[in-house]
Amino acid sequence: MATPTLVTTGNITVIDDGESTANWVGDTFSLDPDIKVEGNNSVSCALTTNGVNEIYVSGTFNLSGGEHLRLWCNFSFVGNIDTEANDGIQLWISDGTNTAFWTVGGSDTYAGGWRQFIVYTGNTPTSGTVPTGNSTQIGIRVNTTSKPRNVPANTWVDQWTFGDGYTVTGGTSVDPITWSGIASVDAASAYGIVTNVDGVIFLTGRVQIGTGSTATYLESNGDILVFRDRPVSTTLYELNYQGTACDVDVTGGAISAAGTQNYNIDTTTGTQSFSFDGLQISKCTNPDFSSGDTVVNSVFDSCGQIEPLTATFTDNTIKNSTATGAGTGALRLPLTNNINNITFADNDRDLLITDAGTYNNETFTHGTNNFDIDYNNASNSTFNTPSDGNTSSVTNTGAGTMTVVTGQVTTTVTAKDAFTSALIQDARVYLTADSGGAIAAGTVIINGLTDANGEISDTRSLTQNQPVSGYVRKSSPGDDLYQSTPISGTISTASGLSLTALMISDE
User: Fold this and answer.
1) Gyration radius from the chain CA atoms
2) Is the N or C terminus of the chain more exposed, i.e. has fewer CB atoms within 10 Å?
3) Is the pTM of this model over 0.85?
4) In the chain, what is the straight-line distance between the N-terminal and C-terminal CA atoms, in Å?
């Protein structure tokens, strides 16, 4: 697979890469070429105090707007460290006057070895005061319950950075980039944004796939992506797909978040092509898709309101939506859409409709709860639904009213060449009611021309099954001519009617 390019400029700032001891304060430091996470060395020292041990990097760092500190550390005296509840391991920043401490671990949550400790400086600190201007010290504090063993080194630090994530580009249609490839490139620089642990992809930042006209092809087959539970900003975690030259093809797998974390999926800035097929998506705050995207055969579990816009959004399941209350819905349904075959289960409100117009529900189903709609518009609209057991109820949260009309079914007539099975466009379909139904015999059901798919349809409400009959013909001068073909059938109140007219050429 192609080697991806990670664009970190403007996204990740290196505080110290562990290649020099010049800016380290708080102990006697040396370089260690053997125990490291990147580059040629790490910085090592021996912390020996029973109680508070502090080391830091000096410099000038602008963290006033809130930044995600990412500090790789390795301690060999875990048994001496206090618990997380007792502030065993803390990250801190200071301007020489104001100092803020955030607790990030302890002997009960850290088992030793290299770990990237992360904290968002915009979060309320465990103690102290956050500097309002530039910080001059970024450090780590280890609180011990007994004196650590005095050995040549018991502490190693490497690749201290701050930032939210990066942009990924690269690949071709025949040699795409993959999530495991992204993790491999990340590991070489120890950014820690995307890591591969036993085949599971863990994320601790914002990742953008594609940018502008830079060719980018991402392929994902069965990958499992998990956003780690770390003390990060509530708006940090996001998968952003964009770029006029960005192609994304995801088949199978899952995306989720650990603990109390959530994340966002956003493609609204547009891609060249985008496809999710057979994906399990859970705990996504607000899945946003755009025109041209394809999202099919997928499950959205415990997600916020889904915004498919005009994307192809079919054969999906939406359950346990976190979009609750007035003015929300598990799925926002635009008036113009490519949404079909959606199953809803255990949502507060299944649909949010904000555009006025007439909507047809032929393929929405629900679980144990009623099929619920939140309508928020100043004008009145109609929602047509078939008599198939799917109960629809509406909460009008705007000034207008959504009226539900039940018993709506569709009658479709398709014209085909009897010998080649070619679809026939512009064939005249004339279909009327026969006796034996609720509609008076002779009432015209369909009178029009077939479209490019050889089809013409009618949707209406029926109180009982309706027999129909008619013909299909094509006799316009200059066109391929076909003999008149009789058609007949019965429109079911449950499933409607689909007729195919096999037409014989009249030439």
Assistant:
1) 31
2) C
3) no
4) 56
